[in-house]
Structures are given as structure tokens and as C-alpha cells.
Amino acid sequence: MNVDLRGLRALVAVVDAGTFTGAAAELGVSQASVSRTVASLERALGTRVLRRTTRDVSLTAAGARVVGHARRVLEELAAIGRAAQETRGDVRVGYAWAALGRHTTTVQRRWTEAHPGAALVFVQSNTATAGLTEGRADVCILRRPNDDPRLRTALVGVERRHAAVAAGDPLARRRSLSLNDFADRTVAVDSLTGTTTQELWHPPTAPRTTRTVRGVDEWLTVIAAGQALGLTAEATATQHPRPGVVYRPVRDAPPVPVWLAWWADSPPPELHSLLQMICEEYGRTGLGAAPRASGTPGPHA
Fold first, then answer.
1. Is the link from the previous residue into 268 a cis peptide, with omega within 30 of 0?
2. Do residue 277 and residue 151 come from a single domain?
3. Angle, alpha carbons 168-170-171 (nearest 5°)
4. Can you give the pLDDT at residue 288?
5. What pairs with residue 186 in β-bridges?
6. I want to staple 235 with a disulfide (CB 3.0 to 4.6 A). Which of 98, 112, 164, 214 is the partner?
7. Which distant-in-sequence residues (6+ apart) come within 8 Å of 216 by Cβ?
8. How many percent of the chain have pLDDT more than 70?
9. How many beta carbons lie within 10 A of that of residue 214, not counting itself?
10. Quick one: 113 and 137 in the same domain?
């Protein structure tokens, strides 16, 4: 049996993204390449791991067993990489949607001033841990709860929620919105990395339906087309302006907590300095919070 890492990465990417197209975007290769790599993995294993239809992709019984082992192999490989690069000066910060919003460049500049010769590098990765468990980041920014016992987190700030609406939508003419304005509308939701859930609303003011998207670019595309409304953290509005999309604050929506997460057994160098710096920047908005390390963040709408 000749199983290579490319096949394992492709399998995990397809499972996480839900489609070959999404996996290709995440891996930075073509859809055909992902399909060939998974097919090669299946030949090596002697069994199908994915069930393909014209509508969706799902794990076979064998695939459900294999993917757990694949994740562990890739995570161990990432741990090896971290161990080999512990002395590197740069710190990679993973994020799924919007890094630190308007604080991003300020924190980067402050970090460079305090650590000459080193850089704070922000890396976008549309995974549940924003590239941390995949080995693409040393720490990551999360706006969703994390229950992985191998990680530690600290609350570094909170952000207001903003609605995203098509520029031609009547709601775009308002200075601010309320959660009631989403009633009987379609809301675009990224269930893997987004911050919007049905629990934010109570009948009869709940949205009529939701539309599943994967990542901020697809989210913005359906909103600009007038096919859905969006609800997101303030950082998205700052870092992702888009022609045809208007952001408005939602005055009665609960704020979005922002956490920094890292591996419990191998925190990056100067972690405390980074935490303090981010907290100071969020604190200047009047919404910041002091670091609070924990294994699992508290409840999150």
C-alpha cells in the first residue's frame, strides 16, 4: 500500500470544504487535480473513500474511518514542522475571514517595531481553526467557540455585528438595522467559519431561510447579487469592502467575541507580548477585554 500525504490532504480538504471545488480553492490547485489525487488514494487503499453524486460528496463507511486517521497524520506532520521551526522569528497568524479588522496593520507595525527583523504574517485559511491545526499558522484568530482540548485560547476583544446588504436593497438606505429587519429574508451563512447562527433570532422575526456559502468571497458574491443578506463581525466590513455591498451596524445584535488560539503544548515565542498588543488595540475601541486563557471559549451566538 503506497499512501502519500497529498492524498490525505486532498481527502481532508474535500471533507472540510464539502466539494471538490472548495477543496481545490483551499489547496491552491485545480479541481481536476484534487479529483485525481483522491482517486489515487482510493487505488492505494483498495476502496472508495468518497461517494460522489451530481449533487454532493459524502464519505463512504471506509472513508469515515480513514479520514480520522488522515487528520491525525497531518496534525503530527504539522507538529514536526513546528518543532523544526521554533527558532524562526516570524509569527504566522491564521484567520478565516478578516484577521483583526482595522487593528491588523497597526498590530503588524507595532510588532515589527518591538521585534526588529521579525514579522507578524497573517495567513488566510478557511478551516475551523484558521490553519492552526493544519500547520499553516503558529496562532490563529477565532470568532467561533473551539472545543479542541489540545488548544488554548484567550479572549482578546469583541466586535459589533454589521449587516451586509446589496447596494440596491431598500435596507441599504438606512444608517443602522435591527435583527427584525432580517425577518422573512434569506441570510447567507458559512457554517464552518462564519459567526451567524439561527440562535440569534426568535420567531416570528427569524429569517425565512438560510443559504450556505463557503468563505467570505462566496458570501460577498451572493449578497452583491441581492440573493441574500449577511450578518458578520465588524472586522469583515473593514477588511472586505466590495462594490455593490453596503455594511450597516446592527444595533441590537450581540457582539462577536474574538479569541487568539494556539497549541497548548507548543505556544509560540513572545505569545504574551502578542496577546497584550492585540488586547491594547481592541481596548482603545472601548470594547476590548483583557486576556483570558482557557481550554474552551464560552458561549457564542
1. no
2. yes
3. 105
4. 42
5. 209
6. 98
7. 96, 97, 98, 190, 236, 240
8. 91
9. 21
10. yes
DSSP letter, residue 157: E
8, amino acid identity: L
- 201's grid cell: 433570532
Spatial CA neighbour of 166 closest among 215, 219, 227:
227
What is the rounded end-to-end Cα distance, in angstroms, of the chain?
A: 45
What span, in angstroms and rounded, lies between the C-alpha atoms of 287 and 5?
43
- Determine the Cα–Cα distance for residues 126 and 26; give it in Å rounded to an integer: 7
Report the C-alpha gap between 228 and 205 in whole angstroms.
Answer: 16
DSSP 263: E
For residue 210, being part of any structural domain is answered with yes
Handedness of CA 145, 188, 96, 57 (dihedral sign): positive
What pLDDT digit, counting tens, does each position of 187-220 carry? 999 988 999 998 999 888 899 999 999 999 999 9
Q: Order the strands of the 120-124 sheet from edge to edge.
A: 120-124, 91-95, 139-142, 256-263, 151-159, 293-294
